[in-house]
Amino acid sequence: MASSIENNNEKLTLKSSDGEEFLVEKHVALQSTLLQNMLDSDCSSADVIPLPKIDARTLALVLGYCKKHADASSSKQGELNSFDSEFLKDMDMGALFNLVLAANFMEIKGLLDIAAQKIADTIKDKPHQEVREIFHVENDYTPEEEAAVREENRWAFEGFP
Amino acid sequence: MKMAFKGVFRKFREMKDDSKNKSRRRADRKCMHGRGRSHIAPESSPSPSASLVQESRWANLPPELLLDIIQRLEASQTLWPARRDVVACGAVCRLWRETVKEVVRTPEQCGLLTFPISVKQPGPRDSPIQCFIKRERETSMYLLYLGLTPALSGDFSKLLLAARKIRRTTSTNFVISLGAEDFSKTSDTYIGKLRSNLLGTKFSIYDCQHPCDHAIQSKGRSLRNCYSTQQLSSRVPTGNHNVATISYELNLLRTRGPRRMFCAMQSIPISAIQEGGTAPTPSTFRSCVDERCSLFSAAKGKDLKFGSSSPSEPLESVHDARDPLMLKNKAPRWHEQLQCWCLNFKGRVTVASVKNFQLVAAVEPCHNVPAAEQEKVILQFGKIGKDIFTMDYCYPLSAFQAFAICLSSFDTKPACE
């Protein structure tokens, strides 16, 4: 990790929730609307920008995505698309959750798009009990509501192979 | 810099509030003060406590992200059976349900059927919803499926409604249900029925739900409210509300010719097809028997026979808007070469049958219904094969109402032909 004081204008330092610092090129950081707004509002790059809630592992992933997109902005779109589809492949739900939160917080639209889409795809073709398990959502229905919901689901699911 | 950070810190604080994880919070604080260095994040270590952290975190998915995710799912799953994924999301928990209800639009707005309540909501205004009906003679069942034809949609046709014909000495009843397993009137799947008179010339459609329960989905209403009065408890004493009357004109001369039919839709005011008008759209299966409904009380007391409204009445314009919507079958034209009566079904009906029909609005000049609306085929029904019929309906009819009208065409009417 480079010390934050000697950073030149082209770099800035981001600090993860677990205290790890990342030296980032400015044009890479600009992929994040949050960072862009901070830089626009007269933010000196000598400061360390803390990103609580984003751990080092997630931040590394996020910056990897940003770097690819910042560097490839003028190159082929097809290459980026294949990078995007590979990027989230085989990612576990915990990492995906951290990533979508980070993308949301740092306002990185492209990353938010692919992460949210990946989560939406995870829900597909699953009964609600399974969705509950995957997302660890507590069933807060009363028994009556639960019965009504079951009835609704029976109509939606019955008759299909 | 300070200004910018102020905003960012506010954002951090908001994020912190929804977290219940104290160890994470401590780590954040350290970070804010710029003390901590290279701590190992709990997530990266696969200890049991780490998975617990994940569990609680998914539950705290920010509502705007959940909305985004469900919007994506809804937009991609437009065809059945994929559409059931949207229904499954609505069953996860209260927050998910609220979010799904916010995303899913009515058939009138999006042309798609999603929740079972969709069959009680008006169809789209422009292009009709295309369905087919299978008749099972041995079980006296009629099955309404969403789809173009059985051949085209095959096993993936969504069963919308099922009806069973029950002959009595004085009338014929068609019990209409959400499923083909249970046709008892106390069942949660019971939707309503169609009953004929002795001659089979007049039919009444009964809805288990009060027709003026047209609480159009309001954004601000919480799910708790929707549910507290909904289903089960309130559905048990099932009501029978006459929502429409279908009459087939008697053919006393016994000359062979096309049928003439009229439908008085007591639950749909004529204003529904006037400029800017809306049709009742229930948002739940909640029955509100006790709820007073001023909109239809005027129409209820009136003679519903076709063409009986007297224009000399006081408060004419008010009464006109509340008049029930009347539908009539489009008169077929006599085809000289083919020597038969013809209607243009635009390829959706292929077999000549006395049962085939197209319904359009029957309006009077004082109703001020746009010409385009008067021309529009609201419901069309016809034969495409042995025991297979198509049914295409659109606004302001619901699938339930359309199905019930079609069922009346199945019942033999010796006096009408």
Structure characterization notes:
The complex is a heterodimer of chains A (161) and B (417). Chain A contains eight helices and three strands. Chain A is mainly alpha-helical. In chain A, a hairpin with a 4-residue loop joins strand 1 and strand 2 (21-25). Mean pLDDT of chain A is 86; it is low at 1-8. Chain B has helices spanning 2-17, 22-33, 48-59, 63-76, 84-89, 94-103, 107-110, 150-153, 223-228, 294-301, 316-322, 371-375, 399-410, and strands at 129-136, 141-146, 158-167, 172-177, 190-196, 202-207, 241-248, 261-269, 324-329, 333-335, 340-342, 357-361, 379-385, 388-393. Chain B contains 13 helices and 14 strands. The N and C termini of chain B lie far apart (87 Å). Chain B is α+β, with helices and mostly antiparallel strands. In chain B, helix 4 (63-76) crosses helix 6 (94-103). The radius of gyration of chain B is 27 Å and the shape is globular. Chains A and B meet through helix 2, strand 3, helix 3, helix 5 and helix 6 of A and helix 1, helix 2, helix 3, helix 4 and helix 5 of B.
Quick summary:
Chain B: Residues 41-51 have a biased composition (Low complexity). The complex is a heterodimer of chains A (161) and B (417). With 161 residues, chain A is mainly α.
Q: What would you call the quaternary organization?
A: heterodimer
Over all CA atoms, what is the radius of gyration of chain B?
27 Å
Q: Poorly predicted ranges of chain B (pLDDT <50, ≥5 residues)?
A: 1-50, 213-237, 287-317
State the total count of DSSP E strands of chain B: 14
Distance between the termini of chain B: 87 Å
Largest sheet of chain A: 3 strands, mixed
Class of secondary structure makeup of chain A = mainly alpha
The portion of residues assigned to helices of chain A is 55-70%
The fraction of residues assigned to DSSP E strands of chain A is 5-15%
Q: State the order of secondary-structure elements of chain A, H for helix, E for strand.
A: EEHHEHHHHHH
Indicate the mean pLDDT of chain B.
76
The percentage of residues in β strands of chain B lies in 15-25%
- Largest interface, by Cβ-Cβ below 8 angstroms: which chains and how many residues each? A-B, 70 and 77 residues
Would you report the number of β strands of chain A? 3
- Helix and strand content put the structural class of chain B at alpha+beta
What sort of overall outline of chain A do the alpha carbons produce when their principal axes are compared?
A: elongated
Describe the strand arrangement of the main beta sheet of chain A, using strand numbers. 2-1-3
| Shape field of chain B | globular
What count of helical segments of chain A does DSSP give?
8
Count helical runs of chain B.
13
- The overall pLDDT of chain A, averaged over residues, is 86
Pathway (chain A): Protein modification; protein ubiquitination
Pfam families (chain A): Skp1 (PF01466), Skp1_POZ (PF03931)
Domain SKP1 component dimerisation (chain A): 109-156
InterPro entries (chain A): SKP1 (IPR016897), SKP1-like (IPR001232), SKP1-like_dim_sf (IPR036296), SKP1/BTB/POZ_sf (IPR011333), Skp1_comp_dimer (IPR016072), Skp1_comp_POZ (IPR016073)
